[in-house]
Design a protein that fits this description.
This protein has six helices and five strands; from the N terminus they run H-H-E-H-E-E-H-E-E-H-H. By secondary structure, the protein is an alpha+beta fold. The longest helix has 16 residues. The chain is rod-shaped, with a radius of gyration of 62 Å.
Length: 255
Amino acid sequence: MARILGGRSEHIYQAVMTNAQTKVVFGGLSDADGETLARELLRELFDYNRPKEILNKPVVVGFERVIMRSHGFAEGVAESSATSSMEAQMTAMGMGSGMTQTFGADGLPIGAGASHVDTASSGMTTGKGSMSAMSRSVVRSEGESEALRPILEVMPTSVENQDEILHQATLAIRKLPKRGFFLTRPDQPPTLMVTPDVDDPMVSQRRVATFLTAAREQSPFILRSDAVSQLVEQRSDVESLGDDDDDQVFSVPDP
């Protein structure tokens, strides 16, 4: 497009872009042509609310009430032992004395006597004892509480800007597959299409020439490419003459 219309006037460029209601665009274009055609043909497909998926992240959108239950279990064992021993020694001593007197039948004393006694004793006792004890405890606990759990939803945090959307549309045109093209028609959105594989027709060159001749006779708008180039040249020359030469007439080449 840039090669054909780049050297022409702005009026011819605008006439082609505006009046050609049906456009077919194939891939393999330059960056400049791809960006221009993306603006002209794919603008209806631009979505300025399209999120950047790489920047999506979980966002809290609400809360839900949940019941939390807890269970606890504890077990303990305690053991103790004790040993004791005892030893005791005991000593006892005693002393005693006494006197006796004997009386006869007539009640008169007939004799007397005295006595003295000493006593001593000692002893020892020993003892030993031991004690052991063991205790075990088990504790179980249960609890219940209420809490709010956040509800997370992956949501976009940013959308693509105009330059990013235009860049993607330009790449879509430039990287069209073989035989792939965008078709735009009046009042219809752009459509991605692929030309079908068609086997070589078994038609002679004579029949092809006859068909082209008949088509040119039926439509005055069917011209050869060299004739179209010549016509564009004539229109450019007329436009360059200015407003004073409005009566300039150019001829349409024969098809």
